[in-house]
Specification:
mainly alpha; 10 helices
């Protein structure tokens, strides 16, 4: 990666992606095109991007934990359900035609966009108003997180929106609590993905490292917005990113 313009493009995409992923999801729509514009083939761009998922997730989870927003009661069920689901989804994806994957992706994103419009809690309750319902909804929450993990292993794109829907809509976390546990989920996904892509030399570390720093900065900015912005603003951002992800899936198709 050479030249100030390349660095500027990487910084802008990384900070924006970290910001968006913390508030909603879909930030890779910004980073992947930039990585390919820098000359990386799609598979290497995909692998190189995964380190940034790890750093922004780790940063977000650490800061939100320090702010008292990470509900440790939810760590085990969230990690177990997501891991089991993602494993099943990955195995399923190896046996399903790409066209079916694309249809599932688009249907899931359209449903998510509709849910955000009609259900305010789809991304979590307003900050400071959530009351997690593990005592009465543990089974439903586990099944929902397993399903989100299944989808994540099956396709990956847009999985953050589904995780938020489960944490906010079913388990009644507020936006900060949901963001903290979502960061844990994406951290688990990211660590596994980085190991896999690194094993086959699909990570360009000289680009992955600065991008990882930029997305961590964006994550910090996203947390500041989530703490201060009106809940409606966060819903609008989430809705726009779901629509953008849908359009991106259509274009790639």
């Amino acid at each position: 990666m050479n030249g100030p313009l390349a660095h500027a493009a990487l910084a802008a995409a990384g900070i924006s992606a970290g910001f968006i992923n913390t508030v909603a999801g879909g930030g890779s729509l910004l980073t992947l095109p930039v990585l390919m514009l820098l000359g990386l083939p799609p598979d290497v761009a995909n692998g190189t991007n995964r380190l940034s998922i790890v750093t922004q997730s780790l940063t977000g989870a650490a800061v939100l934990e320090r702010l008292g927003q990470l509900d440790r009661r939810g760590l085990v069920p969230v990690i177990v359900a997501s891991a089991l689901g993602s494993l099943g989804g990955a195995l399923l994806a190896t046996r399903v035609p790409n066209e079916i994957l694309r249809i599932v992706l688009l249907v899931a994103l359209v449903l998510m966009a509709t849910l955000i419009l009609i259900e305010p809690r789809a991304i979590g309750a307003p900050a400071g108003t959530g009351e997690p319902l593990w005592a009465t909804r543990r089974a439903a929450g586990f099944v929902g997180l397993f399903a989100a993990g299944l989808y994540g292993g099956f396709i990956q794109a847009g999985v953050g929106f589904l995780i938020l829907a489960v944490l906010g809509g079913i388990l009644h976390y507020d936006v900060l609590g949901a963001a903290a546990l979502k960061a844990i989920c994406t951290l688990v996904y990211g660590l596994v993905a980085v190991a896999v892509f690194a094993a086959v030399d699909d990570v360009v570390w000289s680009i992955a490292a600065p991008l990882a720093v930029y997305t961590a900065i964006g994550s910090l900015l996203g947390i500041k917005l989530a703490r201060r912005a009106p809940h409606l603003v966060l819903r609008i951002i989430a809705f726009v990113m779901v629509v953008a992800t849908s359009v991106g899936a259509l274009i790639r198709g």
